[in-house]
Amino acid sequence: MSLLGAMNSAVTALKAQSTALAIISDNLSNSSTTGYKASTTSFKTLVTQSYSSTSYASGGVSASVRQNVTNQGVISATSNATDLALDGDGFFVVSYGATGEETFFSRDGEFEIDAQGFMCIGNYYLQGWKTDSDGNVISGSTNSSSTLDAINVNRFTGTAEATSAEVLKANLPADAALNDVVTATMEVFDALGVSHTVTMSYEKTAANEWTLTLADPVLSSDTSSQSGDITGGPFTLTFADGALTGITDSGGTATELEFSITNFTTGASDIASVTMDVGQITGGTGSLTQFASNNDDPDISITSITGDGVEYGALSSVEVDDTGIIWAHFDNGQDIAIYKIAVADFTNANGLESTGYGIYRQTAASGDFTLHEAGEDGVATITASALEGSTVDTSDEFTRMIVAQQAYSAASQVISTCSDMFDELIAAVR
Question: Where is each Flagellar basal-body/hook protein C-terminal domain found (predicted)?
Answer without folding.
Answer: 385-426
